[in-house]
Amino acid sequence: MRKLDEEATASTADIRAVIPPDRAQNSGLSLPTMLLGALCVLLAIIAIVLAAVSMNRQNVFNLGPAQTAAGGGSDAQVAGKTWLVMIGHDYGAHEYIDVQGNLAGYHHDLIREVCEAAGINCRTVWDSYPNCWDSQAGQHGRGGQGAGKVRLNCRTVWDSYPNCWDSQAGQHGRGGQGLMNGWYDACTGWSRTRLRDGTFSFSKAFLPTHTSAFYVRRGNPGNFDVDDISGKKIVFLDGWVDDEKCLARQRSITGSVLPVDKIVHVADTDKFMEQISTGQVDAGWAANTLISQGYYNGTILQLLAPTSPEQCMLDGSAMMSRKDNNFTIYWNQGFDKLVESGRFTRLCSEAAQRYGRVGTVACLNV
Fold it and tell me: Please, which residues have CB within 8 angstroms of residue 335's CB and are 6 or more apart in sequence?
């Protein structure tokens, strides 16, 4: 046993002789080594932060000049933005297709002049009106502060009106898919209403307001009574401000709140007239300017104004855009310059002569 104990003791001593003493207890790390380690950790943290910022910046979506207008960005960024302005073809002398098949009308002239005054290059985009604002029968519609002269690129694009604001029988009106989905930055010639104002932003108005009226066959063979429309079927222009919600606000008219089966929506003014002239509906409800602005010559349809029409517009026609888009800010800058110089008044007078064969131009007194 003793021999075993001696061997065990010797073995332990041999092991202790091989293993060096614990340096941590005797000496510790030197100062240069500690500083070098701290520096490496700091550099690693900085590298991680920079990598994260870089990845995030790659996923940022630039919504046009919004950053510049709010104080961020630069003139170069704004100048690189291409603005798309939607325009249609069924707005009398304001928007139409001429005999050569070209888009024409007062709105094209206005866009060119305002954008030039603002220092922006504008082009129009054609689309259907409901793609800017969509309202369906029986339902509610839904949907830069730069000090210098910033050069902006704008393009006009043709599209159908429902792509701005859409309205269909039995549903609430809503913002059209074109404007809601960012196909373009603005839609031309749309009026502010209570419903639209909650969905989109609007520029200063460049056309006056109007009230609504009924349209019947010439001579009113059905003896349509503007004061009582109970049980009557009425046709509306899809997406226009004069929808069934506007009619429902006419407190002087009995039966103004129509059931869904008495509401008809059509896409354009030709179908509107057809519904009335063929007796498919009892009357139409639309702007009281359709005959005076040349949509109809008055030989087929007759206008019947309500006894006490109530205004459905908060303001006249303007540029309509999404709330996260600052196009209307730049537009207003150019529009103000046009008004101050007197060019706006002259432009409307010239348009009245140039497009008079198509219809009258509604000039706004400013």
Answer: 114, 117, 118, 203, 204, 206, 344
Task: Please say whether the beta carbons of 143 and 165 come within 8 A.
Answer: yes
pTM of the model: 0.71
Distances from the Cα of 341 to the Cαs of 52, 238, 330, 332, 346, in angstroms? 51, 37, 17, 14, 10
pLDDT at 12 over 60: no
Q: How far is CA 206 from CA 55, 108, 117, 211, 252, in A?
A: 44, 13, 15, 16, 30
Q: Please compute Rg for the chain using Cα positions.
A: 34
CATH numbers and ranges of domains, the chain: 74-209+315-354 (3.40.190.10), 212-304 (3.40.190.10)
Structure tokens at 300: 């087929």
Phi and psi at residue 318, in whole multiples of 5°? -150, -175
Please give the full DSSP string across 62-81, using - where no structure is assigned: --TTHHHHTT-S-HHHHHTP
* Region for 222 from its dihedrals, namely left if φ exceeds 0, alpha if ψ lies in -120 to 50, beta otherwise: alpha
Contacts of 275 (CB under 8 A, 6+ apart): 235, 264, 266, 281, 284
What number of H helices and E strands is found in the chain? 12, 17
Length of the chain: 366
Q: What is the mean pLDDT of the chain?
A: 79
